[in-house]
Amino acid sequence: MEKMYAGARLRQLREDRSMTQSELARLLEISPSYVNQLEHNGRPLTLPVLLKLTETFGVDTEFFAARDTARLIADVREVFDDNTVSGAISAGEVDALTTTLPEVARTLVALHRRYREAVENVATLVTEQGLDRSTAQQPHEEIRDWFYLRRNHVAELDAPAEKLAAELRLHPGEVRSGLATGLLERHGVKVTAESLGPDQHHFDPRRKTLRLSPALRPGQAAFRLASELALLEAGEVIDRLVEDGKFSGDTARRLARIGLANYFAGAVVLPYRVFLGAAERYRYDITRLSDHFGVGFETVCHRLSTLQRPGTRGVPFSFVRVDRAGNISKRQSATGFHFSRVGGSCPLWIVYEAFGSPGRILTQIAELPDGKKYFWLARTVSRAAGGHGDPGKTFAIGLGCELRHAKRLVYSDGLALGTGAAVTPIGMGCKVCERPACPQRAFPAIGKPMRVDEHSSSLLPYPPLG
For the HTH cro/C1-type domain, which residue ranges apply (predicted)? Predict the structure, then answer.
């Protein structure tokens, strides 16, 4: 058995039950000094003590297992990379904080996010006098953070959505008709097809009529049907999740309802166990999954990033959607990959290269400054918007996982994944990136001195000092 140090979780277990170290020692039939050593990671949990804990408190052994703190470490590092925050902290201190005091670290990250929001609000109010304060709060960021903290998995909706899909007997290729029948039989809602201008669908609860744009592809139409069915079937659960989320205002709460309804829709159209089984069988081949379930590339990628049900987890993915200008319009993560809020994204990231090869799936092994490696794939998706002359939409979709999972993906076949791997060094954004020799750098790193000499030049846009 590998040595297990679980001081913080043991202390949490004891404090949640208002017990002293002496009382816990009596229950475990060990000395108080031994308990103290366990809680301060001076000694590992032995198998007899672990079994006694699980029997006494009714917790699973997984409760004491080492937890992946990569996401939390990245969040804490960003706090101290902020040039408006004084102080410095070493990598070892970050690791110690996140491992021994994870709740303190999360509180620190939450406070920093509130601080950044306040700074942005003040800046906006100063430069745009008379602007409504609520417009500066960017409520969509609240929703992204909420899903991020849940690792993009909402068990309260995923399980009932899967159950509903079984009750409606939805089968690939027949999902749209099955959902329309379910809406009519369960809720008396009639589905019609008619032109709605720029809108994709509209539901009239008084007339119990759901109108769909005929321009929608079958997969898109099914998703819109499922999103309205979500509010009818799981409205109370969605309302409770929104209430518990303590979002800042009415706009954020409405966006949260839409986001949760869309999550439920994805879980109905692509039921968890059925979809995970197909994903494993096809080795996460997105094109085959799209064909099998009759949905688009983006929908499949987004659903793949949600497969984190305890006991039956898929590959933990990060999902991102960006436009040509580098704006990230969607980002969800079940991994330790961190999307920076400071300084934009890295131009060396494969997601941006996808625009140069429309429709092709590109791959990249990317290494972050902390040495952690990720396997990324990216492809563009395009959507027409109206008739001739109307501008359409083109995005790049990125899906990434830790390199250790790459062999489970068909896209890694034929690639060197070990010491001979072709690795691209990327960062979280130029302003916080620690790579001084990057020729693609757009901004100097915050807090790092530059070499400025009027009598010499460099291939590097912002050469470091020394």
Answer: 10-64
